[in-house]
């Protein structure tokens, strides 16, 4: 019968040291479980070993370092290892298998926020429109990443996607619907790239469709908050007190009812100040059709007062070159609203949603004016906004005499917005 080692106490184990008689590691049996040893290095580093047989092979099984693993824990681990051996399990081989499985799992595992970056890197170059690329990234960063960002893509379920979509499905239906499609695209990329398997939890048909109301049943297309018609003259007066290209670009946007990108990308060679006509080429238009914008006297005076930077064809250049960003115009309106609030006024709120107005909402303000307070045909206002309408009507309103009728409409609109004589200035850039 094998000799049993003396069962050492925790204090006795703590006081064990290398003898210093050799340069090799030394082992001391600590008792309590046969084969349990404390291994001591010449530098007094200490760790636990279990010497035992697995089948016909003798093994030394590491049980962790001392004192991180206490004497009591080492004895418990040694008993568990011996119990595995009695059940026909090799603890060393099982540990290797678990370690290998963990490494494989980690190599497959991919956080959603990382998947977003990799997916976008693959997809963004395919987008023709820079604004579309920004929208893709911004919606995912704003709504999806805060909820799903730290989750591995293989662990994301339908319920997780719902946690992203449900808070905005009723209030921002169009945004939520697009966001769902973008989450689906990211997870589809992750599946093809080998980071997840199974159904896509962001899929609509036969999936989220059963849990969320159809977008067209929830709300109409989102409207951008607009300046109330009765507030428009005061809004323009406040805008004209502000300096800079951003304020002047916003002023021209209001006077012409075009889109932000069309104003920010405006070039001097598109504008004929003598004729009071701005011709925006098809490649810069959303509908990819040339758009003629009759300029009111107020718009012409605004443009004539702008400085022209030598060698720069842009009407509204950014300080560091290139065109102004969309955020420049948005920031101008945001600062105007903040000034109103500071003065203890409600400011420029959309009469329906009660949200602060944004640049794109100025087009709605113009459309409301044309519909509610004038006799101008609706089709004429739609052409002024460069909306897609029936070909026959659009062709009629694009004839030269209709441009002149639209000129009268834009002049009347400029009169509604107020006198431009007190307009702000643009600080000339170096």
Automatic annotation (TrEMBL):
Gene3D superfamilies: 1.10.150.130, Integrase, DNA-binding domain, Intergrase catalytic core. GO terms for molecular function: DNA binding. SUPFAM superfamilies: DNA breaking-rejoining enzymes. Residues 222-410 form the Tyr recombinase domain. Signal peptide: none annotated. It comes from the Bacteria. It holds the Pfam family Phage_int_M. The keyword DNA-binding applies. Residues 110-191 form the Core-binding (CB) domain. Keywords: DNA integration, DNA recombination, DNA-binding. PANTHER family: PROPHAGE INTEGRASE (PTHR30629), PROPHAGE INTEGRASE INTS-RELATED (PTHR30629:SF2). Belongs to the 'phage' integrase family. This is Integrase arm-type DNA-binding domain-containing protein. It comes from Albidovulum sediminicola.
């Amino acid at each position: 019968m094998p000799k049993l080692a003396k069962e050492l106490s925790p204090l006795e184990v703590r006081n064990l040291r290398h003898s210093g008689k050799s340069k090799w590691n030394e082992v001391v049996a600590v008792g309590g479980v046969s084969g349990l040893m404390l291994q001591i290095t010449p530098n007094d580093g200490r760790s636990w070993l279990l010497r035992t047989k697995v089948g016909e092979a003798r093994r030394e099984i590491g049980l962790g370092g001392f004192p991180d693993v206490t004497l009591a824990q080492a004895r418990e681990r040694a008993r568990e290892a011996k119990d595995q051996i009695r059940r026909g399990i090799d603890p060393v081989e099982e540990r290797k298998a678990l370690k290998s499985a963990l490494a494989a799992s980690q190599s497959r595992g991919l956080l959603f926020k990382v998947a977003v970056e990799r997916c976008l890197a693959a997809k963004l170059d395919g987008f023709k429109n820079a604004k579309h690329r920004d929208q893709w990234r911004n919606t995912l960063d704003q709504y999806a990443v805060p909820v799903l960002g730290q989750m591995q893509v293989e662990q994301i379920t339908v319920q997780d996607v719902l946690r992203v979509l449900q808070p905005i499905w009723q209030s921002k239906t169009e945004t939520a619907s697009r966001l769902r499609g973008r989450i689906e695209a990211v997870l589809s990329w992750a599946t093809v790239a080998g980071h997840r398997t199974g159904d896509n939890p962001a899929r609509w048909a036969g999936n989220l469709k059963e849990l969320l109301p159809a977008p067209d049943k929830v709300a109409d297309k989102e409207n951008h908050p607009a300046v109330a018609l009765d507030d428009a003259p005061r809004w323009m007066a406040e805008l004209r007190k502000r300096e800079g290209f951003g304020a002047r670009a916003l002023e021209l946007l209001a006077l012409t009812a075009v889109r932000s990108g069309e104003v920010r990308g405006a070039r001097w060679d598109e504008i004929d100040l003598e004729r009071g006509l701005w011709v925006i080429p098809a490649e810069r238009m959303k509908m990819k059709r040339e758009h003629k914008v009759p300029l009111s006297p107020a718009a012409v005076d605004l443009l004539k007062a702008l400085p022209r930077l030598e060698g720069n064809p842009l009407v509204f250049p950014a300080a560091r070159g290139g065109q102004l960003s969309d955020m420049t115009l948005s920031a101008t309106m945001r600062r105007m609203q903040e000034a109103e609030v500071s003065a203890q006024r409600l400011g420029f709120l959309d009469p329906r949603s009660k949200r602060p107005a944004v640049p794109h909402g100025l087009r709605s303000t113009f459309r409301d004016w044309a519909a509610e307070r004038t006799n101008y045909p609706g089709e004429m206002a739609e052409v002024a906004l460069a909306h897609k309408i029936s070909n026959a009507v659009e062709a009629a309103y694009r004839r030269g005499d209709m441009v002149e009728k639209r000129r009268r409409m834009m002049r009347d609109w400029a009169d509604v917005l107020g006198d431009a004589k007190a307009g702000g200035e643009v600080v000339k850039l170096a």
